[in-house]
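Just scan this pair:

***
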Amino acid sequence: MFRTSTGEEIFIIDAHTHLWDASPANQRNQYGRGWIDCFYDYHRNLSPAEYVWPLSDFERYSPERMAQDEFVKGYVDMAILQPTYLTEFFINGFNTIEQNSVMKQRYPERFILNGAWDARDGDAGLEYLRRQKDEWDIKGVKLYTAEWRGASKGYKLSSPEAYRYLEECARLGITNIHVHKGPTIYPLNRDAFDVADVDDAASRFPELNFIVEHVGLPRLEDFCWIAVQEKNVYAGLAVALPFIYPRPRYFAEIMANLLFWVGPDKILFGSDYAIWEPRWLVERFMAFELPQDLKDEFKVDLTLDVKRKIMGLNAARLYGIDPEEQLKKLGNDELAQQASSVEGMSKSQAGGAGSSARAETGA
């Protein structure tokens, strides 16, 4: 829970997190090594120095550390686990639903566990999707359209093969389709993450919600023109948000465009943990203000009510969560008790934005 300097409580859902294993023992080939090195470059180049991890910690971290970083130190009330399989690069997969389920089992009220599918997996993949629904009652999936599979280097969300899976998602009640449409990661191809294929899929399946992770960067304008037309297309801020630290003007321009085109009801906070820790992202975002020239040009503003929606209420609506009821469940759990005793967490200075905010963790 984050509390502003005026006592306003902000319910936070981190809509983009992972528990991954990129340790050398799990790297299948040079591409696994290159993948985590690329992730680490994002991490160290966009994070404040005090939040940069040693590479060995970044390659593989414990469930306990993740819980601490999210819920004890990071102001987060709930988090959504988003799988990324990458079995061509990692022996046991990089970040599968089976790996992520450890967090759900340990902290069932804190985590939402999403599944995954790949349109190239045919009937066997559809059966695996049904098993994920049966075993974990998933409400969403994370898709990686640029993932390599044998000789194939990606697929289209608008393909007939993908539509079989989207039809099955609709039938099973898996309504939240999180799709990576943003910066590439070595060695994947940038064009395979092009946001264009979201357009037809969203039109064809109005009963599903398409959360475009990373807001389509570097194709922000393309994404915005799709999202303004398709009412079921949402913006996931993971990867865009960390620019608030090294390039605040760039981040302000991203936010002004999103608020103008997409609107405050369709933007979701996400840290992309463990690429970035939520604590500094939350502090800086809650203290952030749009420059006056962007307010004047776009006729938008990052008010407290807008931030409240982005930080948690929008994701709560998509996943059928009542924030007040959820906070009651979380109020006395182990993590809330730990958070309440963390020295210095009752008052935080949101660095770099010129304004202070008082913060609390736990429920």
